[in-house]
Amino acid sequence: MVGVQGSKGEALRFTETARRRAAIAALGLVAVLTLGACSSEPTVSASGPDGGGPLNSETGGKPAAPAKLTYEPAAGAQDVAPGQPIRVSVADGTLDQVVLTNPEGKQVAGQPSEDKKSWSTTEQLGYGKSYTWSGKATGTDGKPVEIGGAFTTVKPRKQVGANINVFDGQTYGIAMPITLTFPSKVTDKASVEKALSVETTPKTEGSWAWVHDDTSVHWRPKAYWQPGTTVKFNAKIYGVKIGDGVYGKEDRSASFTIGRSQIVKGNTQTHRLLVIRDGQQIADYPASYGLDADPGRVTPSGTHVVMSKHDTYSMTNERYDYENVVVPSAVRFSTNGEFIHGYAKSIWAQGKKNISHGCVNLAPVNAKEYMAGALVGDPVEIEGSTQKINRARDYSDWTYSWDEWTKLSALGS
C-alpha cells in the first residue's frame, strides 16, 4: 500500500512539473515572438503597397519609379536671358550624362552636383543662339530616360555695361560704399540685384539700395566697416535683363580691403576740423566753411564720403564768377563739388568765419598733412550748417537710417 501511494505522489509531482515546464516554454515562445517583432528587419515584399511597382532599398522603401526630368529654362523656351540659371535636374533617379550643345556643335562647360541630381552650366551662353540638350538619366526603377530638348537665348535690342567705384588690391576707408552705375535707368532692378554678391571677412551685414534716379545701385554695411575687412564683390550682369530689350554686356568684379578707422568731424559753427584715427584725435585744424548767408554756398551737414584725392585741383563755378582757381591738396567729399583743400587767401578767416563757396578751407600746410593720411572711403561728418546733404544729387548713402536703406532694395529688407 505504501508503494502504491508513493507512486501516485510521484505521478502527481511529475504532472505538476510538466505543466510548469509547458507554461515556461509558452512564455519563452511569446518572448521570442515579441522580441522578433521589435528587433528583426521587416520582410519586404517584392511589390509595393497596393500592388505597386517593386521597392528599392536606395529610395528608403518607396516604390521604384522612372526618372522625372526638369529643365531650366523649359524645353522649347524662346528669348531666354543667358544670365539666368541653365540646368537640368532629376527626381526619382540620377543623371548619368548631360550634354548641352551650342549651334556650332561645341559642348557647353557644366558641372554636376555631388549627388548627381542636377547639372548646371559653368560658362556664359551667347545671345541669340539655340542650345540643345542630350544625355541620359536612370530612374530608381533601373530604366534609362533620354535627356533632350532645346531652347533659344534672347537677341537683345541693346547691351549695356556698368561702372564700379572699387578696384582690385585697393584699400578704402570705413565708410566706403560699393556702387554699380548704369548709363540709363534700370527697370528690372530685381534681376540685376540677384546677380550681385558681396563676400566679406569677417562677415558684415549690409544691403543694396537703388538711388540716383534708378541708374545706380549701392551696397553699404549697416555700420561703418570694421578695419581690416576683406571684401570680394561680383556683379554677374552679363546676360541679365536690365530693361525692355536691354541686357548686361559684361561682368564686373573687385577685391579690396578696408584700412584703418579714420573719421573727419567738421563743425561749421566752431570753425574746426577734427581728425579721429582709430579712436584717437590726431589733428584739430582751424577751418572756414561755406558762407552761412547763402544756401548755395553752405557746406551741407551730414555724413559725406571721401571720393578722391588731388595734389592740385582747378576750381570753376560760373554762378559765382570764378574760373580755374587752382588749389593745393584737394580731397573731394561730395559729388556737388565740395572739397577739403588748402587755400592761403582764407587763412585770416580759418577758425573764425565761414566765407567759402561750400568747400572746407585749410592752411596749405594743414591740407597737405591731412591729405597724406586720408583714404578714399573715409567718412566726413559735417554738422552745424543750415543745409543738409541733397540725397538726389550727393554721395548720400550714410544719410539714410538702416531701416530706410533696406527698403530701397528691390528684393525687400
From TrEMBL:
Pathway given in the UniProt record: Cell wall biogenesis; peptidoglycan biosynthesis; Glycan biosynthesis
Active site: H341 (proton donor/acceptor), C359 (nucleophile)
UniProt region (Disordered), positions on chain: 41-67, 103-122
One of the GO biological process terms: peptidoglycan-protein cross-linking
GO MF term set: acyltransferase activity; peptidoglycan L,D-transpeptidase activity
Species of the source: Amycolatopsis orientalis
Family annotation (Gene3D superfamilies): 2.60.40.3710, 2.60.40.3780, L,D-transpeptidase catalytic domain-like
Domain of life: Bacteria
InterPro entries linked: Big_10, LD-transpeptidase, LD_TPept_cat_dom, Transpep_catalytic_dom
Sorted UniProt keywords: Acyltransferase, Cell shape, Cell wall biogenesis/degradation, Peptidoglycan synthesis, Transferase
One Gene Ontology cellular component: extracellular region
Protein name as it appears in the record: L,D-transpeptidase
Entry-linked Pfam families: Big_10 (PF17964), YkuD (PF03734)
Residues covered by the L,D-TPase catalytic domain: 262-383
SUPFAM superfamilies: L,D-transpeptidase catalytic domain-like (SSF141523)
